Amino acid sequence: MPEIDFNSDLGEGFSVYRAGDDAAILPHLTSANIACGFHAGDSRSMRATVALAAKFGVAVGAHPGFDDLQGFGRRMMTLSEDEVYELIVYQVGALLGFTKAAKVELRHVKPHGALYNFAAVHRPTADAICRAVKDIDPSLILFGLSGSALVTAAQACGLTVAQEVFADRRYQGDGTLTPRSQPGAMIENLHEAIDQVMNMLHSGEVRTAQGTWVPVTAHTLCLHGDQPGAAAFASAIRQTLLKEGITLQKPARART
Fold it and tell me: Residue 251: which residues within 8 A CB-CB, separation 6 or more?
């Protein structure tokens, strides 16, 4: 029976500000990527989101990004490999402290925003991320864009990798995500999102913004938790997956 992990980026508030309704979306997920304080998140949100994920039996992962609170980690920063390594260790280490305190397993790492997108095409950045994750805990699963340089780097590093696809993002002809600065980068129509998910899972390909098709490998499916109506999207996608006989399952550590 086919299976897929269903994840979302959560805990992306700061102080009194919150992005998305984590409590509403979490019951529909199998994995949560929790912001670690650089692009979003703080000590209180990390602790609360870890506890909330544990309440719903959802796997916990770290979601480190560029140190860009004002830009929500979606602006490009030019960093050395050492600087990338250090920001990953710093942020994952912060969330690891909260998971240990809560006696919850830290299961995976997924880079955020501009860091994720750059690592998808820039092998030195991807290698630095992989070294950091491996040095923290070589059993951690690394989430990376399907077919990307980050996936290749993780495999070369000996990490378990979950290749990721997106329900609510449009793709470019090279398999990368359409930049958010371009019109239509986000899929806001539920039926269109479900059609994209079903194509990726059943046919192993996704239709690009240019109308072509590119192959994808789907181990984990992401829906962004900060877009309007995310909880309703998550519920409908989950129901569709189950109706289609697809098992929702946390990513397996043995997957490469």
Answer: 5, 31, 59, 107, 108, 141, 143, 160, 162, 219, 220
Alpha-carbon distance of 24 to 8, in angstroms, equals 12
Q: Nearest CA to 113 among 39, 219, 33? A: 39
Q: What is the pLDDT along the chain (256 residues), one digit of tens a residue?
A: 689 999 999 987 776 567 678 999 999 999 999 999 889 889 999 999 999 999 999 999 999 999 997 887 789 999 999 999 999 999 999 999 999 999 999 999 999 999 999 999 999 999 999 999 999 999 999 999 999 999 999 999 999 999 999 999 999 999 999 999 899 999 999 999 999 999 999 999 999 999 999 999 999 999 997 788 899 999 999 999 999 999 999 987 754 4
DSSP code of 195?
H
The full set of domains in the chain, from first to last, is 3-166+217-248 (3.20.20.370)
> Rounded CA gap, 50 and 103, in Å?
10
Token pair of 175, please?
Answer: 């398999």
